[in-house]
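ok trying again, last paste got cut off:
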Amino acid sequence: MCLGDVDFTPHAQSDVLTYVITLTLAQRKWMRDELRKARAEVLADSEAFPRVLFALERLGKLLAPKESSLGKFRPYLLELAAESPLASELPSTNRSFHTPAPELFRLVKDGRNDALHQGARVRHLSDTAVRFALVLEDALMNLDIDDVRVGDLMVRDVTIAEPWYPVAFVRQRMLEYAFSFLPIQTGGEWRLISDLALAKYVSNCSNSKRTERLSATIETAIIEGLSTVPSVQVAADSEIKCVLVQLDHCPALIFDDERLVGIVTAFDLL
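nice, full thing came through this time. structure:
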């Protein structure tokens, strides 16, 4: 049976039931982003464990529309996970560091009711769910490097610092989402504010001066000495290997013509 570009017809090979999974690049990117967002929420709050479950069920439904439960999605999710070396190859040689995907799935599924209804073992289950999500994310984007562009791996919906934002608000955003850099358009060009530069600006002064600086706008802060750094700017259709050459410790800003459409760090390309 097929649904659009997803072929989930079972095939018997060596007495093992397998499934042909042919997701389009658009579908892979969409589900990768769903898993990535769910993972970020869990890392911020272990009680958000159900968010990963919902993403897994959404992916399972995409692969097997006629099924309706996490347990029934198991063979489809594991077949997809098998596209990543994190699923079986690395666990087979480094079992003390990597847990096989079937075991990760079992731990997530068996603990599902406990996590949702009693709150027991939530932190452990959250860690397990995050690890399983990482395997699936790697599988979804385990494509030939020549077929992938930076726009496929970038983070969309970029959080930026507007010149009129109060310094305190920018600080809050950085701490809330663990941002190391925020893009800002100033002086007609896109630059980056780093967490280190902001720390030096708001903390290297007296308490009264700190209050004054936190209340100032970013535009004023830059005039008063808040440093910014130039940004690496690349097109959304740039090859990954070309972007990696340009990346240093700062992220790259992704543009479609002159419109900022994304941001990518080495973390996103791991």
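cool. Residues 2-143 form one domain. The radius of gyration is 22 Å.
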